[in-house]
Design a protein that fits this description.
binds zinc ion, two-stranded antiparallel sheet, disordered C terminus, 12 helices, 2% strand, mainly alpha
Length: 267
């Protein structure tokens, strides 16, 4: 999974598409695959009961599970629903582009995504950084911000920052607002400065989160940097051992990537 890319990718896409895309559905699409599922991956404690997926990666990325949210077809289906309900073509394909960028981005980790579900449950995975959601939110954060994952997010932040003009008021007025009537409705209810802050929000949220988690992992705690392919080497990364992904998933899913018995830092 990516921690920050999904916040800032929409600004890079916005720069590319200009007036042809609606930013809000693009951003919602970019968040959609993990919306309402992530909490169950890490687990929550409700009135003394722990609610957590038995096999977080299976739940998050597999089938049976909610892995279909990371398929290209899921984006198509939701986009069609948006089109049917709203008759707004730009909203529909903007959502689609956002959701596809999320599904493709998550192929970067060691579990990958079922891009072509329901036609196949094969997991497409580049395996560049460790999937460690099963270790809990904090260990996952420590691992992600010590390995290639945070570098990848950093590249997206660079790309979005390189296109800083997309964040300016004039760009917003000329390109973002005209593409989507929602901004007009928002302007009727809110002062202009707040509407602009809403548009810029995900960028600043992403950048702040990236910096804060890095400081948390390496200043407040002592997670070891390990920027190697599939890393960090010290975390028990999950992967899909063979192309029969769902079988591998059901059978306990997993192998370790790297010397994963090394133990993780405590904090
Ligand atoms: Zn995801």
């Amino acid at each position: 999974m990516s921690w920050v890319a999904h916040d800032v990718e929409p600004y890079v896409l916005q720069r590319h598409f200009g007036k042809r895309i609606a930013f809000i559905p693009l951003l919602i699409g970019s968040y959609a695959p993990d919306m309402s599922t992530k909490w169950f991956v890490y687990g929550v404690n409700l009135f003394g009961f722990e609610l957590k997926a038995d096999n977080p990666a299976q739940f998050h990325r597999g089938w049976p599970g909610v892995g279909f949210t990371h398929s290209l077809m899921f984006g198509v289906v939701v986009a069609l629903v948006i089109l049917l309900v709203t008759r707004h073509k730009v909203w529909a394909y903007s959502f689609l582009i956002g959701q596809w960028s999320h599904a493709l981005t998550d192929t970067g980790d060691t579990v990958g995504t079922m891009l072509l579900f329901p036609f196949t449950t094969h997991h497409f995975s580049v395996g560049a950084w460790a999937y460690a959601g099963q270790t809990g939110r904090f260990n996952d954060a420590g691992a992600y911000f010590s390995g290639p994952g945070f570098v990848w997010d950093g590249l997206w932040i660079l790309a979005a920052t390189w296109g800083w003009k997309t964040l300016t008021r004039s760009y917003f007025e000329e390109n973002v607002r005209p593409a989507d009537p929602v901004w007009g409705w928002a302007s009727a209810a809110l002062p202009a400065v707040m509407v602009l802050a809403l548009y810029r929000g995900a960028y600043f949220y992403g950048v702040c989160r990236w910096i804060t988690w890095l400081l948390w992992a390496h200043v407040a705690n002592d997670f070891a940097f390990s920027i190697v392919w599939g890393g960090p080497v010290w975390v028990p990364a999950l992967n899909v051992a063979n192309t029969a992904a769902s079988t591998a998933l059901r059978g306990g899913m997993v192998g370790c990537v790297g010397p994963c018995c090394g133990g993780m830092p405590r904090f």
